[in-house]
Write a structure and sequence with these properties.
single chain; about 160 residues; six-stranded mixed sheet; 6 strands
Length: about 160
């Protein structure tokens, strides 16, 4: 029994060393927050120009990266095609944030939570407003921050 406990303790110690993360300094956390908020801004500015290529530039090449209004989108290509249809007839998409917060998990993982209102302008200058909530998860891969998952919803107003 003691041998089993010693082996189990050793395995747990090895696991904690393998997955343990060093404590980040406030400067490191601030740098990470700045980097992911800048990537978020790239997507927001691209949406304002209705530039899907620029919007999708920071998205990692993975399956199931986006959940939109409760629907899991299979891959980046499928997501691009869906957004291409959504953006047809639009001249501008604006995001007005009520809240936008960066959360740092480690030196290689972070996420942003956001909510606010989106305002879309059609080619014939009609405006549509809708609330939104979004969580975007970032990972540093090969030294670069990439969006590895986004979960966005646009609930109906009550």
């Amino acid at each position: 029994m003691k041998k089993c406990i010693v082996i189990l303790s050793g395995l747990l110690l090895m696991q904690s060393c393998q997955y343990g993360r060093p404590v980040l300094t406030e400067n490191e956390k601030s740098d990470i927050a700045e980097a992911i908020l800048a990537l978020n801004d790239v997507a927001v500015q691209a949406a304002a120009r209705v530039n899907l290529d620029a919007m999708f530039e920071t998205l990692a090449e993975r399956d199931h990266v986006i959940i939109r209004n409760g629907v899991l989108i299979k891959n980046k290509e499928e997501a691009y095609l869906q957004y291409q249809q959504l953006f047809q007839g639009l001249s501008k998409v604006e995001y007005h944030f009520d809240q936008l917060r960066a959360h740092i998990l480690s030196g290689n993982a972070a996420y942003i939570t956001a909510c606010g209102e989106s305002v879309v302008t059609t080619n014939d200058q009609r405006l549509f407003r809708r609330p939104f909530a979004q969580t975007t998860i970032y990972a540093r891969e090969d030294g670069e921050w990439r969006v590895v998952h986004t979960h966005a919803s646009s609930p109906n107003r009550s």
